[in-house]
Amino acid sequence: MSTRIGVVTFPGSLDDRDAARAVRLAGGEPVSLWHADTSLGDVDAVVLPGGFSYGDYLRAGAIARFAPIMESIIAGARDGLPVMGICNGFQVLCESHLLPGALTRNAHLHFRNRAQPMTVENTETAWTGDFQPGQRVVIPIKNIDGRFVADERTLDELEARGQVVFRYTGENPNGSMRDIAGVCNAAGNVVGMMPHPEHAVEELTGASVDGLGLFTSVLRKLVAA
Amino acid sequence: MARVVVDVMLKPEILDPQGQAVVAALSRLGFDSITAVRQGKRFELEVDGELTDARLDEVRQAAGTLLANPVIEDFDVRVETPA
């Protein structure tokens, strides 16, 4: 039986289809989940895709955090369900307090979209097992609210516990503190990242196929479990 | 009907690039005495019935739950027109 990965569509999600496609290319079975649903069905993992959920009218991700489906996702994440938030999904996970910190407006106030070099800092999470520690990858970013912020104590704790999963290399695209591009929770099942791995899964359209590693990692982990 | 105002501001230690863009524009326009700007949000809430302490507490809870993100923002709740 194939591994089922749910992809949530909020009003304003843009990258749900790309995320589902990436799941399929990695060898999993994508399952569409709707923001107003309360059940996750029998999915083995969940992706919160990029976009502008509920228009991001209040703060990025703030309204989506209270969507009915999020209650099941928050409970599941606390029980070890692998959850990945990409861009707007990362913002939703921070607003849900499943991940520490917050994403604020880019320091230079410009929307940034480009192929972004990064290093993989933690390969122990549910979503990064197929990478090598310190591996250089190139994954596209596209955001205006991508600046990761947290107080110094939280940042020190994240570093000490290995919860910084991805770090920007070269020019920091948004002023993110300590060049942080992605973090995980203490258990490593919940990962949030600003860059878009679902846009780097095919040679024809991506800057690389480095993004596929996130999806193959979780599939391998779920099959092994 | 009472009106309660919730002001939300980024915490002082959080960079406010919008405020910085505004203060730079003010300086270009010749408003030289303004040296710093921080930009926030103001919410005006209409509350049904008498504004009891319990209802005001509910507003504070709403402010801390949805209107502000306490990780990065401070908020202030005040009654503008009591019922």
Layout: helices, strands, pairs:
The complex is a heterodimer of chains A (225) and B (83).
Chain A lengths: L3 E6 L6 H11 L2 E6 L10 E4 L19 H11 L4 E4 L1 H8 L6 E3 L7 E9 L15 E8 L3 E3 L2 H9 L3 E5 L11 E5 L5 E4 L18 H13 L1
Parallel strand pairs in A: 1-2, 1-3, 3-4, 4-11
Antiparallel strand pairs in A: 5-8, 6-7, 6-9, 9-10, 10-11
Chain B lengths: L1 E9 L6 H12 L12 E7 L5 H15 L5 E9 L2
Antiparallel strand pairs in B: 1-2, 1-3
Question: What does this protein look like?
Answer:
The complex is a heterodimer of chains A (225) and B (83). Chain A has 225 residues and is an alpha/beta fold. Helix content of chain A is 23%, strand content 25%. Chain A contains five helices and eleven strands, in the order βαββαβαββββαβββα. In chain A, helix 1 (16-26) packs across helix 5 (212-224). The longest helix of chain A has 13 residues, at 212-224. The two termini of chain A are 14 Å apart. Chain B has helices at residues 17-28, 53-67, and strands at residues 2-10, 41-47, 73-81. Chain B is elongated and about 50 Å long. The chains are: A alpha/beta (225), B alpha+beta (83).
